[in-house]
Structure formats: structure tokens, C-alpha cells
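Q: Can I see a sequence and its folded structure?
A: Here is a first one.
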Amino acid sequence: MCVLIPHFLNPPSVMCTAKSTLRTMTNSLTIGTVLLAISCSSTTTDKTVNQTGFDKQLSSDTTTMYYASTAQLKSRYIPDSVFQMTNLQHLSIQGMDCDYREVDDKGNDITKCWMINEIPVQIKNLKQLKTLQLNVNAISKIPIELTELKNLKSLVLDDNSGLSNIDNVVKLENLETLGLNGCNISKLPNNIGQLKKLKSLGLAGNNISATEMERIKKALPNCVTYF
């Protein structure tokens, strides 16, 4: 049985390798499928990330993992360079809790808070993607383009409080893990039972009635659901 990882666990922190360590690495070491140092060079506020340094390397089609946060990216967009990583298997971008306000000495609002507000259509380029995690963002719907990812097994959108349209999720027939904790959802699609392979479903922190809970359990008898 697959057990859902608690939604409050954040993706692993990205660590930049010290220059002294890099100098001691042999020339045969290949930067590729386990490259995690993505966000260290992603510092622009626009959708386009400068193709220099690490980011240029990460455009390689050998990259399989991308972990970052909107705070590190200083952007509310998934970088365009990510959608060039055609062998990407794991994508995680942690958003920010924007329930605060920062002002300067003159009372001006200088709050810097970035949250991804949509999953762009280019997501369909990532045909090898197996896991997608976009916690603590402002995503409002699951786009139809996401359903083109036939290898996707885990979708975690915890704490996207404005997520209201999830109808397309039922077309992700190979999905095994679905995290929708803290999304203010009151009802799942009527045909949620189409997710025959779903093993773990997170629905804690939503507005789901007892009647709806029972319907979900009956529709997904082989799935462990957390309310």
C-alpha cells in the first residue's frame, strides 16, 4: 500500500556545491540526471530565466529533476527553460505563504511574495514527467494540457486555496497519488471513480461534507483517503 507523504513536508532544499569541491571532481563526472542545483541561478523576475551558468546546463535533455521555490526564483512563473527539459521526471516548485504585509518607513507596501497562479500549456512538453508538486501557490484550475502526461503518477497541489476547477484530474488515469489538502474544495468530480489506479488521496483541510466523504470512499474503494 502506498502511503501519502504528509503535505506539510516541503521539497528538499537545494544545495549549491562549493567551488573548492568542484575543483576536486574528476573530469569524468557527468552533470545530468541527478542535478538538483536548479534554483541557485534562477534569479530573474520575468518568465524567462537567463541561459547562463547552471541554468544553461539545466536546459540539457538529460535533466530529470527540478526542485525550486518561488522565493528563490523571485517569480510567479515556472521558468520557460523547464519546459525544454524533455526528460524531466520530477518537478517541484514551492510557493510562498502571502498572508502578511511588509511596509517601509513611509508606509508603502513593499511586500515581495510570489505564487504561481497557473499551470501553463507548455506543461504538455514534459512527456516523461512522473511527479508534479506545486504546493502553496495560487493555482485555480487543472488545465487540459496536463492530461497529456500519460506517465504522471503523483500530483500534489496542497494549499492552493483558490483551486476550484479540478474536473480534468479524472483524465489522469495513471495517477497513483493525488494531494489536494487545504484547497477549500467541497466536492470532487462525479466521475472521480475513473482513477482506478489511485492509491492515496489527500483531502484534509477542505470543506467536504460527510455525505461527500462517503461518496468518495465508495467511488475509490482501493484508495486510502485522508480527510
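Q: Show me another, different protein.
A: A second, unrelated one:
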Amino acid sequence: MSSTDHVMFGIDPTELLQSYGYLALVIGTFLEGETIVLIAGFLAQQEYLSPPLIALAAFCGSCLSDQLMFILGRWKGTAIIRRFPRLERNLGKATRLFSRYETALILGFRFIYGVRNVTPILMGLSGVNHLKFLALNVIGAAVWAISFTAAGYFFGQAITLFMEEFPHAGRFVLGGIIILAVLLWYIRKRRRKARQAAEAERESGTGHRNTLPEPRRGEEGQDGPNP
């Protein structure tokens, strides 16, 4: 995997991990998520890092980030969502999932493309019990951290075995990874444009933007009223 394949906030996560180790992993998962964990798992297979410590650092960064987003959602959720168009675009999908699968969504929103960033804010805004979110978020973060650490580790193991069997195939492997990354980027871009067009058509037809959920009266007293 080339160190230039993934750049997060203008920073190469591979260089970060090699220089600052687990601290970089905590910060990276607080800010972003999957990419840096997968790379860390790959480096663990190369014996640069420890898999259990990778999972622990990823768990801490992800869990802290989502708890902060939940609190901000409880405090200024409406303003935050209106301020960032990307969050507002994904609000409709997150709200539909939330209305049908509240507990399952808290456990698994990290694995659902398009709703990861907005879901903790939505949970706080809608008045989900803080202790409930904390407990389920801890479980979800643990499963997520272990899963992506393992995925990166076994990916590194597969690449190592392949390179041992075909030592001159490195360029082809790198080329395949780059092509796959570009293809995934293109597919995601097309899907995002289609989703935005559908949402714009739906909003123009109804004459309003995505509807934000009302806070639950029974739980406003526990965490304070939503502004």
C-alpha cells in the first residue's frame, strides 16, 4: 500500500502512525475513522504496532468523538446540522433509520456509509437517553475497532503471502489497489450526486428542507432542554 494512496486532512496517516504510533491513532479515529485503522492493522502485521493496542486506541478515539458529537447535538444540534450542508443532506437517511431501528442504529451507525457523522448529533438532538447512548456506543465502538483492526491485519497478511509467492508482482498489486480506489471513489461520487439530485427534487416538491426531529419531552429533564 502506497503512503500516498490515502491522505486525511492533508496528512499521510502512514507517516503519522510510524512517527507517533498510538497517539496518532487516537487522534485519527477521533477525526476520521476507517482508513487509519486499516493502515494500522496492516502495520501490525508488519510488526510495527500491537493489534490489541491498535484496537484500544481506535476504540478510545471513536468513542470520545461520538460522545462529543452527541453532547453537541443535545446543545446546538439544529444549528450544527444547518451549518454543514453535508450533514443536512444525510439527515433524511439517518432519520428514517432512527425512526425504525433506534437501538440497532446506535450500535451500528459506524458501519453505514453516509450516516456516521450525523447520527450522534441526531441522537443528541432527538433526546435519546444519554446513558443508553453511552452504553450502546461503547459496545459499537469496541466491535468497530476490533473489526477494522483485524481487517487491516489480515489484508497485510494476504499481501505478504502473495509477495512471497510472487516477489516481482509488487507493481501490479499497487496498480490494482490504485485502480480499485479510483473505481470506488467514482462509484461513491456518482451515488452521492444521484442522492443529492433525488433529495433536491423531493425538497422542491414538498417545499421544505429535511425535518429535524423533536426532542422527547420525557428525557429533556435528564440532559437539559434542547435549545
